[in-house]
Amino acid sequence: MLKKELQIAVEKGVMLPLMEEFYTIQGEGYHTGTAAYFIRVGGCDVGCHWCDVKESWNAELHPPTAIETIVENAKKYANTVVVTGGEPLTWDMGPLTQELKEKDLKVHIETSGAYPLSGTWDWITLSPKKNKLPTQTVYDNANELKVIVYNKHDFIFAEEQAEKVNKNAILFLQPEWSKKEAMTPLIVDYVMNNPKWRVSLQTHKYLNIP
């Protein structure tokens, strides 16, 4: 396929820059501890300095892959598929989620919300970032709000985001991994004083799994 044809296919969402795909245990947020097949899509311009998958940022490093191939791989393993990145909403998620839903798979997304919502989702995890705030469509449809706590100011940011998200979204505070010793006790205290929030941990890292 010619480079221009590949580019058009990616723009239409029928091919996606696939970084990796793997079957594992969901480590964060509401569905912690459940089995899921993860599809990590390349491409992100949000630029979090503490991002633990910076290799996902440059979409050109990851081969455009037909969504039919991605779906065939996913259906072999799990009933639930989690689309993550990078920032998956950089791309049109409509074709991929349609194919996944046709295979009777539950489809989740983990997103910063920096781009308008596309695709059909059973669960939307919004993890907003200060340098590129979420679009209204993601605030309106998020099932959970997961704010990463790197420093004390992030508690203020978390409350600002909680005001913007829909009233049904479940609220989580999660320590950034490199700051977990310092931030986890602060998060515990904060949740005990503000019980609308819950604690999320990166349990997959404690379990030493992907």
Task: Characterise the protein shown here.
- This is 7-carboxy-7-deazaguanine synthase.
- The protein has helices at 3-12, 67-75, 94-102, 136-141, 153-164, 180-193, 203-206; strands at 15-25, 35-41, 64-66, 80-84, 106-111, 123-126, 144-149, 170-175, 197-199.
- Helix 4 links the parallel strand 6 and strand 7 (144-149).
- The protein has 7 helices and 9 strands.
- The mean pLDDT is 95.
- With 210 residues, the protein is of the alpha/beta class.
- It is globular, with a radius of gyration of 17 Å.
Key terms:
210 residues, alpha/beta, TIM Barrel, nine-stranded mixed sheet, 9 strands, globular
Q: Summary?
A:
Helix content is 30%, strand content 24%. The chain has helices at 3-12, 67-75, 94-102, 136-141, 153-164, 180-193, 203-206; strands at 15-25, 35-41, 64-66, 80-84, 106-111, 123-126, 144-149, 170-175, 197-199. The longest helix has 14 residues, at 180-193.
